[in-house]
């Protein structure tokens, strides 16, 4: 499987993850210009960060992808929602660079997970080559 398809799959998995978590939380959100971004932001919890970490370990172990690209694909739904709301509602999301930095912090568990998964994979391969 090519890396582009793997990254697309990671985007779909990350989007589905946050959609499912938002369905289970049932947070009350007022309809308005920040409707979708509020739902997405409220779906990022310690549980979802832990899931991103576990998914990152699997990605690093099995697929050996670039940690930053893989983590960005997992949280890509956040910038997409922000850009959508910023174009539909003029004047909203006027602090876009700060929001994007926040989204990079959202990706930290996945980045760490991919690095750990890659490290474990390398250690397992080195042990197999020794034996």
SSE inventory with pairings:
Elements: H1 3-25, H2 35-42, H3 46-63, H4 67-74, H5 77-88, H6 96-106, H7 108-130
Give me a quick take on this structure.
With 131 residues, the chain is mostly helical. The chain has helices spanning 3-25, 35-42, 46-63, 67-74, 77-88, 96-106, 108-130.
The number of strands is 0
Number of helices: 7
Percent in helix: over 70%
Give the overall shape.
elongated
Report, as a whole number of angstroms, the end-to-end distance.
29 Å
Please, what is the average pLDDT? Answer: 90
The Rg value, from CA coordinates, equals: 17 Å
- Segments where pLDDT lies below 50 for 5+ residues? none
User: What is the assembly state of the chains in this entry?
Assistant: single chain
Largest sheet: none
Structural class: mainly alpha
Q: What is the beta-strand fraction?
A: under 5%
In N-to-C order, the SSE pattern is: HHHHHHH
